[in-house]
Specification:
Layout lengths: L3 E4 L7 E5 L2 H10 L18 H12 L32
Amino acid sequence: MSQLKVFADQHPNDALLDTTDGEQIAAELNRVGVLFERWAAPGEIATMPLRRRFWRFIRRTSTGSKPKAATKPSMCCTWCPPTRTKKRCVRSS
């Protein structure tokens, strides 16, 4: 579903246009040189939020515990990129 809302700079709380009609959206955007297209979805769109689906998958495929949060490796020195860990430091080689 598409929606277009247009506001004036001087009155940001009052919408000049608020529409979900595809033809009207295309006409308004065409006035400023923007192409508006709609495509059909290739399949059914899931209604369950992605986060819930992810944790449901994790619970079914693991031992039931949530995985530990990923931690960013700390930068070991100014010579190494931020992804390099202290164990693989360029200067310690």
